[in-house]
Amino acid sequence: MGNAGPFSNQSSTMSKTFKEPKTFTIGIDIDDTLVDTFEYFQPLVAKLTGQPLEYLIENDISYENTPKEWGMYSLDFAHRFFDDYVPSTPAKEDAAQAVARLRNAGNRIIIITSRTNMLYKDCYYTSRLELSNCGIEYDKLICTVDKGLACKEEKVDVMFDDLVFNCDAVSKVGTKAILFTSKENKNQESAFPRVESWKEALELLGKLGIPC
């Protein structure tokens, strides 16, 4: 059984003596949701591959989707550069302010990222340092590839992520998934609601009745 949460139809059948929850648990991914990882690494990819940066930008190419013939592999790239470079990744516009507004409104913010120590020396240390550098405050950080389980255990009501398969995973446990548009998913079809900025994210949450 998935997490029913405040969005469950069960709430309409409860006695009128029960009040709707006034605060929510909100899950948020890091890469290309809170920070601009894809674009941040493009200059380094251009330098390593000898390709013009303009070509990478025009064709939406970065560290995860370089053509095989370029001879650059994402796992090797991660081992070489993530620990040193990731902490300096810039936050998306208004990301820190939006998260602060949500927390100040009483909501619980859980950062849920797929980062693991297969790619980092210490994924928690690097992620905490990056979030601190971006001025993003939160209540809990979880590094796991199983975001569905994390959302179920933490009773997450809404999850923001840039990957459709993560949205699929969390929606199966009763979490409302919202797809954050990225360079990689912008042309991908999806039934999940999309946002392209944190301004849009707050507007959507407001429509869902989440205080912000």
Low-confidence stretches: 1-19
- What is the radius of gyration? 18 Å
Q: Please name the CATH topology of the largest domain.
A: Rossmann fold
N-to-C SSE series? EHHHHHEHEHEHEEH
Number of strands: 6
CATH class of the largest domain equals Alpha Beta
Number of helical stretches of at least 4 residues: 9
CATH H-level superfamily title of the largest domain: HAD superfamily/HAD-like
Task: Report strand order across the widest sheet.
Answer: 3-2-1-4-5-6
Helix share of residues?
Answer: 25-40%
Topology:
Elements: E1 25-28, H1 37-40, H2 42-49, H3 53-58, H4 74-85, H5 95-104, E2 108-113, H6 123-133, E3 140-143, H7 147-154, E4 158-161, H8 164-171, E5 176-180, E6 194-195, H9 198-207
Parallel strand pairs: 1-2, 1-4, 2-3, 4-5, 5-6
